[in-house]
Design a protein that fits this description.
isomerase; chorismate mutase; Chorismate Mutase Domain, subunit A; mainly alpha; Chorismate_mutase-related; Chorismate_II_sf
């Protein structure tokens, strides 16, 4: 992907636009994370380390093809997944503690 900007303002404007898209996608993903808690019996199911590794593999491979830094992609995804796991653990606890 080769995009050329003519000023720092253009760079920042494009980054801001992309950031908005990322936040929109995070919100959508978060709604599914909330729903996932319903289908998991315990906290081990929520943490699902094998699933985490599947996701990492699934995103790092195409990141290279798309011109993204695979190390950055992996670090971002690991952080995002950890945050979503914490949110899902809270959702899971709220569901099972209210019964």
């Amino acid at each position: 992907m080769n995009v050329e900007c003519n000023s720092i303002e253009a760079v920042r404007s494009n980054i801001d636009r992309i950031d908005r898209q990322i936040v929109t996608l995070l919100a959508k993903s978060g709604t599914y994370v909330k729903q996932a808690a319903r289908f998991k019996k315990n906290t081990t199911d929520v943490k699902a380390p094998q699933r985490v590794e599947q996701v990492i593999t699934k995103v790092v491979t195409p990141s290279v093809e798309l011109g993204a830094n695979p190390t950055v992609t992996e670090q971002v995804y690991r952080s995002m997944i950890a945050s979503f796991i914490n949110a899902e653990l809270a959702e899971h606890a709220a569901m099972y503690n209210s019964k």
